[in-house]
Amino acid sequence: MTVFAVEYVYAADSGAIRDETRPAHRAWLSDLPDEGALLASGPYGDGAGALLIFKSRDEAELTDLLKQDPFADAGAIAGIRTTEWSPIIGLLSEHAS
Questions:
Q1: Burial status of residue 43 (CB atoms within 10 A of its CB: 0-12, 13-18, 19 or more)
Q2: How confident is residue 96, by pLDDT bands cut at 50, 70 and 90?
Q3: What are phi and psi of 16, to 5 degrees?
Q4: pTM of the model
Q5: 47: which DSSP letter?
Q6: Beta pairing, strands 2-10 & 38-43
Q7: Do 96 and 7 touch, CB atoms closer than 8 A?
Q8: Res 1 pLDDT > 80
Q9: How many CA atoms within 13 Å lie on the side-chain side of 64?
Q10: DSSP result, 5-37
Q11: pLDDT tens across 11-64, in order?
Q12: Which residues are within 8 A (CB) of 11 and not within 5 positions of it... i.e. 6 or more apart?
């Protein structure tokens, strides 16, 4: 399994859409740690996006998973940057391949 850092950039003026969709988005996210797919997630302080840390077999599997996010379906996400990440030190280092 590989660790990926995923950055969401929220669509401009998507605040109302995100507010409406947030309960479904968080419900979707809440099951993923138990499945071993999500290590951490949270919005940036400026409200422009979020950082999510996932474990996945590969980027294609992760991309399929991200398409299931209610924020994606609602059009709240303008951009996604996915980067393979190797946490070396700290609490997440035990998840590095």
A1: middle
A2: confident
A3: -65, -40
A4: 0.93
A5: S
A6: unpaired
A7: no
A8: yes
A9: 6
A10: EEEEEEPTT-HHHHHHHHHHHHHHHHHTTTTT-
A11: 999 999 999 999 999 999 999 999 999 999 999 999 999 999 999 999 999 999
A12: 17, 75, 76, 77, 78
What does the block give as tokens for 58?
A: 């590969």
Chain CA centroid to CA 95, Å:
16
32 and 40 Cβ atoms separated by less than 8 Å: no
The residue with tokens 């099951």 is: 31
First to last CA, the chain: 6
Q: Which amino acid is at 84?
A: E
Token pair for 86: 């190797």
- The tokens for 37 are 């797919």
Single-letter code of the amino acid located at 88: I
Q: Which of 82, 79, 31 is nearest to 53 (CA)?
A: 82
